[in-house]
């Protein structure tokens, strides 16, 4: 039976920010690259991005963002021989599996999902797509029998729903048709944004390492601090600049900065410059690769098309197998 060690997706809602990079991209690339041929799946979840198609995301932005996301994964060294790397909508068989799941999963249970409950409270009009979002995500995962799913904390309930669906069908059929996936959370990887909340595109508090030097500097300069003067001693435990620096700098550099905070005579402006310079230094090769991929869209198209071709082959076989077991054979 086809199985994948790891699978993850990122929505094409914008260029991946530092939170996405540290929390999902770096750990996923490291797992994917360690393993053998096509043993992982990484995809750009453009279908999931369409849930707010009427508002922030029109199709042109989604399309542009697909390139940004693809370039970011490749810039971080994803080895596409080890990994199926594709655009979700290019393997549209997944929507058929999602439909089967839709027909079984209890409406009442899906209505309890946190993300849905929050949206429906805040917005007058939400789409059915937003409601069934977790079902499509379950299909993404179960179509390939993926075991490990690197995601952010906000996605844990979706993995739970996926496990529930897998379990339900395994029991019904009396056979292990679906592997039960596990979420893979980066420990201690709470990346705060410039305002001290969790870094998130919707909160407009992101640090985007793939923006120009000027914009990146502006983002870092906007990190919120208290109003202590240069002279005063500062608390490294509660400061946001220090928190971000600690996620990326080596231990000795972190210690030096901590001492400067505690001693006084070191201003937040200097700390911000240190953070900015360290980011530029640490990610210089990734930034260079990113910009060169972005300039070469036909190469990105080619990479995604060849990933989709391989993924479609596997997905088709798997879906036929699933259809047979579910005794759903509308097509074959
Ligand atoms: N919902 C995920 C997010 O917003 C993206 C996603 C879609 C995904 N399908 C997935 C992640 C399957 C992991 C596995 O972050």
From TrEMBL:
One of its GO terms (molecular function) is tryptophan-tRNA ligase activity. Keywords: Aminoacyl-tRNA synthetase, ATP-binding, Ligase, Nucleotide-binding, Protein biosynthesis. One of its GO terms (biological process) is tryptophanyl-tRNA aminoacylation. It comes from the Bacteria. GO terms for cellular component: cytosol. SUPFAM superfamilies: Nucleotidylyl transferase (SSF52374). The keyword Aminoacyl-tRNA synthetase applies. It catalyses: tRNA(Trp) + L-tryptophan + ATP = L-tryptophyl-tRNA(Trp) + AMP + diphosphate + H(+). InterPro entries: aa-tRNA-synth_Ic, Rossmann-like_a/b/a_fold, Trp-tRNA-ligase, Trp-tRNA_synthetase. Its EC number is 6.1.1.2. Belongs to the class-I aminoacyl-tRNA synthetase family. This is Tryptophan--tRNA ligase.
């Amino acid at each position: 039976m086809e199985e994948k060690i790891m699978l993850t997706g990122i929505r094409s809602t914008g260029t991946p920010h530092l939170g996405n990079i540290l929390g999902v991209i770096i750990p996923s690339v490291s797992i994917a690259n360690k393993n053998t041929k096509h043993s992982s799946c990484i995809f750009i979840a453009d279908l999931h991005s369409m849930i707010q198609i009427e508002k922030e995301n029109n199709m042109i932005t989604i399309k542009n963002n697909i390139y940004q996301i693809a370039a970011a994964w490749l810039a971080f060294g994803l080895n596409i021989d080890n990994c199926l790397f594709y655009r979700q909508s290019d393997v549209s068989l997944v929507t058929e599996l999602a439909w089967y799941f839709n027909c079984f999963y209890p409406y009442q249970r899906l209505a309890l999902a946190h993300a849905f409950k929050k949206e429906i409270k805040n917005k007058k009009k939400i789409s059915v797509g937003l409601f069934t979002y977790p079902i499509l995500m379950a299909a993404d995962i179960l179509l390939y029998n993926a075991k490990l799913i690197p995601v952010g904390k906000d996605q844990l309930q979706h993995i739970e729903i996926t496990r529930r669906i897998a379990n339900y069908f395994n029991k019904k059929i009396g056979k292990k048709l679906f592997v039960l996936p596990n979420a893979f959370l980066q420990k201690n990887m709470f990346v705060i944004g410039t305002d001290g909340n969790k870094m998130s595109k919707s909160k407009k508090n992101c640090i985007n390492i793939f923006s120009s030097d000027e914009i990146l500097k502006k983002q870092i300069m906007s990190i919120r601090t208290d109003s202590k003067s240069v002279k005063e001693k500062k608390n490294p435990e509660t400061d946001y600049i220090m928190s971000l620096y600690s996620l990326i700098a080596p231990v000795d550099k972190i210690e030096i900065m901590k001492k400067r905070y505690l001693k006084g005579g070191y201003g937040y402006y200097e700390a911000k410059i240190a953070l900015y310079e360290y980011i530029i230094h640490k990610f210089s090769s990734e930034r260079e690769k990113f910009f060169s991929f972005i300039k070469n869209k036909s190469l990105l198209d080619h990479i995604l098309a060849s990933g989709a071709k391989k993924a479609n082959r596997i997905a088709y076989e798997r879906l036929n197998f699933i259809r047979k077991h579910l005794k759903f054979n509308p097509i074959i």
